[in-house]
């Protein structure tokens, strides 16, 4: 009798991913916070910044920069949990989750808080290109203090991401889309809204800490002058 399925052994990369994700879900008490952020002001600023330049800035680059500056103001989010000790980082080393053949890679943009958004754009493109080609060194994919996973390009509106241990938090970004919004004066308008889900390690981070980070991040995204400074 013919088999009804194909038995496909896991690749070495997939085995590593399977082991790390299983350990993270088994040992880290995740909880999640969700926030909507309006992007219209950021999109306008980004369009102006991209005029007449070869290094194009993506929305994700802007969000990396916004996260980086916000993490410095919220060091408990910008941390690792190692051997029952919390390591709070003094710089934002952001791991960006990149899809590669057969799995995922997590190249790190070091000191993202000290870089311009255009520098982040150039570095992110280089890292993603070399990740796809399998050319990254181990030092380039380890040691991050925070992770960002963006599936907006796949028309995913919202998702939960598994924490990249020993980091204590990861931000999952969905697709930005026009949505009806009720303003402070109760007027109805349409805005481009991004839904962000923050997964945190409850051993280190409490709800109010995560909520404060998301609130500050929303302010940075909706008032993007500092992103393009």
Distance between the termini: 67 Å
The CATH class, by name, is Alpha Beta
Please outline the major beta sheet: 7 strands, mixed
Shape: globular
- CATH fold type: Chloramphenicol Acetyltransferase
Question: Key features?
Answer:
seven-stranded mixed β-sheet; two-stranded antiparallel sheet; 32% helix; 229 residues; Chloramphenicol Acetyltransferase; 25% strand; globular; alpha+beta; single chain
How are the SSEs ordered, and which strands pair?
Elements: H1 12-27, E1 30-38, H2 40-49, H3 59-73, E2 79-82, E3 85-88, E4 94-96, E5 98-100, E6 103-105, E7 108-109, H4 117-132, E8 146-150, E9 169-173, E10 177-182, E11 188-201, H5 207-222
Parallel strand pairs: 4-8, 8-9
Antiparallel strand pairs: 1-11, 2-3, 4-7, 5-6, 9-11, 10-11
């Amino acid at each position: 009798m013919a088999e009804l399925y194909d038995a496909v052994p896991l690749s070495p990369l997939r085995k590593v991913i399977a082991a790390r994700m299983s350990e993270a879900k088994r040992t880290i008490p995740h909880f999640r916070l969700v926030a909507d952020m309006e992007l219209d002001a950021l999109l306008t600023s980004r369009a102006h910044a991209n005029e007449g330049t070869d290094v194009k800035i993506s929305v994700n680059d802007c969000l990396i920069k916004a996260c980086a500056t916000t993490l410095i103001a919220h060091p408990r989010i910008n941390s690792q949990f190692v051997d029952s000790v919390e390591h709070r980082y003094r710089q934002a080393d952001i791991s960006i989750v990149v899809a590669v053949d057969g799995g995922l890679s997590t190249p790190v943009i070091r000191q993202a808080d000290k870089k311009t958004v255009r520098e982040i754009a150039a570095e992110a493109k280089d890292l993603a290109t070399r990740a796809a080609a399998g050319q990254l060194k181990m030092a380039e994919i380890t040691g991050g203090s925070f992770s960002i996973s963006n599936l907006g390009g796949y028309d995913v509106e919202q998702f939960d991401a598994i924490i990249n241990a020993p980091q204590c938090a990861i931000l999952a970004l969905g697709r930005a889309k026009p949505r009806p919004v009720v303003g402070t004066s109760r007027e109805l308008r349409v805005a481009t809204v991004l839904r962000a889900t923050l997964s945190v390690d409850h051993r280190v981070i409490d709800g109010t800490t995560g909520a404060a980070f998301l609130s500050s991040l929303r302010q940075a995204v909706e008032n993007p002058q500092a992103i393009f400074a």
